[in-house]
Design brief:
Elements: E1 22-24, E2 34-38, H1 40-46, H2 54-59, E3 72-74, E4 77-80, E5 83-86, E6 92-99, E7 105-111, H3 128-143, E8 150-162, E9 166-176, H4 182-191, H5 194-208, H6 218-240, E10 242-243, E11 265-266, H7 290-309, H8 313-342, H9 352-366, H10 370-375, H11 391-404, H12 409-419, H13 427-440, H14 444-452
Antiparallel strand pairs: 1-3, 2-8, 4-5, 6-7, 7-9, 8-9, 10-11
Bound molecules: adenosine monophosphate and magnesium ion.
Magnesium ion (MG) binds next to loops.
C-alpha cells in the first residue's frame, strides 16, 4: 500500500492578531468518538490524510490535539435580526490554519466542540442531525459552484445533547478561507482603539484582499471588495433558490463564503416571500429580501470601519455612503446578467428585462417549481406537460424561442446547462435523509443524495425522483436554528 504522506500543516496567523479578538481554549473531552462522515475528496484537495488514524479521529471530536494545533475561540459581535449582541464562537473552536500543498491557507474548525468563554447559556454542543445537515448542504453548495465553507468530517461524540428531545452529539470539522465575519469587525471596532483596528484590518486585507493594500484608502477599498464578493454570492443564491435564513452580520463571511447552515433551505414553488426558518417571524430573511439584507449588513461593516476610513467623520460617512449606494445598482446589473444566462441569452438586449419578469410573475402566480421551470427550456415544446403545456407558459415560451433564435442552439444549451441545476437538495429529501441517518443510523439515502449533489448540473439516470418537489408542496415546512 502507498504510504500516506499527507499531513496537517499548521500555520496559525490568527494567534498574532490583537489578543482581545480571541481566547485560547481546548475542546471538551467526549465519551466515545465515532466517525460518521469523512470527505476523502476534500481531504485530498487540502493535502490531509486520506484516512484518519484513531488518534486523529478522536482529535476531531475534541479528544486530544493534533500536533501543532493551538486552538482558540474567536470573538465577534453581530446584529441578530437587527439587534446588536456580543457573541463569539460559543460552540466552535478553531484548531488552526492549515497550509495546503499548493500553498493555500484554510481555517480548520470544530463545530460543537464544547463550551468556550463566549458560550453564554449554551452547552457548546451540536446534535448529529444539525451537523449532518451542514455537511450535506455545504457540500451541495460546493457542487453547485457557489462559494461556501466546506465540511471535512462529522464525528459522533457518544454524549447526549439536550434540545426539545435528547439526541447524540456530533462535531463537524469545518473548512473555511477564514471565519472572519462582518461581526468580527463590529467587535473589533467596539473594543479596539483606532490604531489597533487599523492593524487588524491590515491583517484581514493581507489575508483575503491583498490587492487593496496598495490603494489610496485601503479600508475603503476593502469595504468595496467585501461588498462586491457579497453581491456575487447573493446573485448565486438567488440563481438556485437558496434561502440562508439567518443572515445576521455574524453569519456574513468577509471572504464571501456561504457560512452557517442552520435554518437554510431551498425554495420549491417560486415566491419571493418564501421563509422557512421558524425564528424568522418577520420574514426579514425571506428569499426576496436577501439582496437588501446583504446591503444592510455591508452598512454595518461600513459603520465598524468608519473611524479608519477617514479622520473626519462626515467625510467618512460620505465615502461609505458612495460605496453602499452602489450595492443595488451593481446587484441589479449582475442579477439581470445571471437571469439572462439562466434563459440561455448570451448578451442582454432591450426587452430582456420584461421577458425575465413576465416568467417570474407567471411562476409566482402559479407557484410553480423554481428549479424545474428553467429545465423546461432544455425540452422541445411537445415534451412540456402539465402546467407547462398550458397556454400561458406556451405563449411565453414562444417569445423566448424567438429571442434565443439569434444564437446557435449549442451555445444556448451550454449556457442553460451551466446556470440551471437539475438537482438541488430538496427539503423533503434532506429531512428524510437526516432522519434515517441520525435516528436510524442508516446512511443509504444520505450518501445517495450527497453523491447526486456532487454533479447537480448533470443528467443522472435513475435519480429522476430526486428532481421532484414534494407532491403535497412545502406545507408548513419549518427549519430550526442552532440545534
Ligand atoms: P448562530 O445563529 O448559529 O450563528 O449562532 C449565534 C451565536 O450563538 C454564536 O455566537 C454561536 O456560537 C452561539 N451558539 C449557538 N448555539 C450554541 C450552543 N449550543 N452553545 C453555545 N453557543 C451557541
Ligand atoms: Mg453563526
Amino acid at each position: 500500500m502507498e504510504k500516506d504522506i499527507t499531513t496537517w500543516h499548521w500555520n496559525t496567523t490568527y494567534l498574532t492578531v490583537n489578543q482581545q479578538l480571541f481566547s485560547k481554549v481546548l475542546p471538551t473531552h467526549v465519551l466515545s468518538p465515532r466517525l460518521l462522515l469523512y470527505n476523502h475528496q476534500l481531504a485530498k484537495e487540502l493535502g490531509l490524510p486520506n484516512n484518519l488514524d484513531e488518534f486523529e479521529l478522536s482529535a476531531l471530536a475534541g479528544n486530544g490535539l493534533i500536533e501543532g494545533s493551538e486552538p482558540i475561540a474567536q470573538a465577534y459581535a453581530g446584529h441578530q435580526f437587527g439587534h446588536f449582541n456580543i457573541l463569539g464562537d460559543g460552540r466552535a473552536i478553531l484548531l488552526g490554519e492549515h497550509i495546503t500543498p499548493s500553498g493555500k491557507r484554510f481555517d480548520i474548525q470544530l463545530k460543537g466542540a464544547g463550551r468556550t468563554p463566549y458560550s453564554r447559556n449554551g452547552d457548546g454542543r451540536a446534535t448529529t442531525s444539525a451537523m449532518l445537515r451542514e455537511y450535506l448542504i455545504s457540500e451541495a453548495m460546493h457542487g453547485l459552484g457557489i462559494p461556501t465553507t466546506r465540511s471535512l468530517a462529522v464525528v459522533g461524540t457518544g454524549d447526549e445533547v439536550y434540545r426539545e428531545y435528547v439526541s447524540e452529539g456530533a462535531v463537524l470539522t469545518r473548512i473555511a478561507a477564514s471565519h472572519i465575519r462582518v461581526g468580527t469587525f463590529q467587535y473589533a471596532s467596539k473594543y479596539l482603539p483606532k490604531d489597533e483596528l487599523l492593524e487588524f484590518c491590515a491583517y484581514v486585507i493581507e489575508r483575503h484582499y491583498p490587492e487593496v493594500a496598495e490603494e489610496e484608502n485601503p479600508p475603503l477599498a476593502f469595504l468595496r471588495k467585501v461588498q462586491d464578493k457579497q453581491i456575487d454570492l447573493i446573485v448565486d443564491w438567488m440563481r438556485v433558490g437558496f434561502i440562508h435564513g439567518v443572515m445576521n452580520t455574524d453569519n456574513m463571511s468577509i471572504p464571501g463564503e456561504t457560512i452557517d447552515y442552520g435554518p437554510c433551505a431551498f425554495m420549491n414553488g417560486y415566491d419571493p416571500a418564501t421563509v422557512f426558518s421558524s425564528i424568522d417571524r418577520n420574514s426579514r430573511y425571506a428569499y426576496g429580501n436577501q439582496p437588501s439584507m446583504a446591503q444592510w449588513n455591508i452598512a454595518c461593516l461600513a459603520s465598524a470601519l468608519i473611524t479608519i476610513i477617514h479622520d473626519d467623520k462626515e467625510e467618512a460617512v460620505k465615502l461609505c455612503q458612495e460605496v453602499i449606494n452602489d450595492f443595488p445598482i451593481a446587484y441589479e446589473k449582475r442579477w439581470t446578467k445571471m437571469m439572462c444566462s439562466k434563459l440561455g441569452i448570451l448578451e442582454e438586449q432591450e426587452g430582456d428585462d420584461s421577458l425575465i419578469k413576465d416568467l417570474l410573475h407567471w411562476m409566482e402566480a402559479n407557484k410553480v417549481d423554481f428549479t424545474n421551470t428553467f429545465l423546461q427550456l432544455l425540452k422541445p415544446k411537445n415534451e412540456h406537460i402539465g402546467i407547462y403545456g398550458l397556454a400561458d407558459f406556451q405563449a411565453w415560451f414562444v417569445r423566448w424561442e424567438e429571442r434565443v433564435s439569434h444564437y446557435k442552439r449549442e451555445e444556448v444549451l451550454l449556457l442553460l446547462e451551466k446556470f440551471n441545476p437539475k438537482f438541488i437538495p430538496r427539503n423533503h429529501l434532506v429531512e428524510e435523509a437526516l432522519h434515517q441517518a441520525a435516528n436510524l443510523n442508516d446512511y443509504g439515502l444520505f450518501n445517495r443524495l450527497l453523491e447526486v449533489l456532487k454533479a447537480p448540473y448533470e443528467t443522472q439516470k435513475g435519480y429522476e425522483d430526486f428532481q421532484e418537489p414534494p407532491i403535497e408542496g412545502d406545507g408548513d415546512y419549518r427549519t430550526y436554528c442552532g440545534t
